[in-house]
């Protein structure tokens, strides 16, 4: 769910894109999510006269995080990882090792005639803490 204050910011951003007739030629949308196993409901069908089976529940269920992006040109590599995504991991593994090589490969037209690279404008939204997501 998107909080009301974030929704207003996103709508304003989208309206600006529409007003500028943006064709999304140089825009990358990315997101991350967490997938957790053993958090799903399990339905067991049995006869009324049978004993209900006891299913073990893991103390620490397996979690993996997935990061990916999409552009008008193609999709970024999908990065699957476990552990905690802190600022250092985001900078080293997602930005430096996954995102930037993709940008350099797929957006070579961002180079200037003298070989310098244009500054890439990054527009995004503040990452919400878990307590702000609800």
Average pLDDT metric: 79
So what's the overall shape?
A: elongated
| CATH topology name of the domain at 23-108 | Nucleotidyltransferase, domain 5
Question: Structural class of the secondary elements?
Answer: alpha+beta
- The CATH H-level superfamily of the domain at 23-108 is Ribonuclease H-like superfamily/Ribonuclease H
Largest sheet: 3 strands, antiparallel
Protein name: Tc1-like transposase DDE domain-containing protein
Biased composition (Polar residues): 121-134
GO molecular function, one term: nucleic acid binding
Region (Disordered): 110-134
In short:
It comes from Mytilus galloprovincialis (Mediterranean mussel). This protein has 2 helices and 3 strands, in the order αβββα.
Explain the overall architecture.
GO terms for molecular function: nucleic acid binding. This is Tc1-like transposase DDE domain-containing protein. InterPro entries: RNaseH_sf. The chain has helices at about 5-20, 85-105; strands spanning about 30-35, 65-70, 80. With about 130 residues, it is α+β, with helices and mostly antiparallel strands. Mean pLDDT is about 80; it is low at about 120-134. It has a domain at about 25-110: Ribonuclease H-like superfamily/Ribonuclease H (Nucleotidyltransferase, domain 5, 2-Layer Sandwich), CATH 3.30.420.
């Amino acid at each position: 769910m998107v909080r009301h204050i974030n929704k207003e910011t996103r709508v304003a951003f989208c309206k600006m894109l529409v007003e500028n007739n943006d064709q999304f030629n140089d825009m990358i949308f990315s997101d991350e999510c967490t997938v957790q196993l053993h958090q799903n409901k399990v339905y067991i069908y049995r006869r009324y006269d049978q004993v209900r089976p006891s299913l073990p529940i893991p103390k620490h269920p397996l979690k993996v995080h997935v990061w990916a992006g999409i552009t008008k040109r193609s999709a970024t590599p999908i990065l699957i990882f476990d552990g905690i995504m802190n600022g250092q991991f985001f900078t080293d593994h997602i930005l430096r090792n996954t995102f930037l090589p993709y940008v350099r490969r797929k957006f070579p037209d961002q180079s200037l005639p003298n070989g310098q690279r244009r500054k890439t404008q990054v527009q995004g939204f503040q990452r919400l803490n878990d307590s702000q997501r609800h």
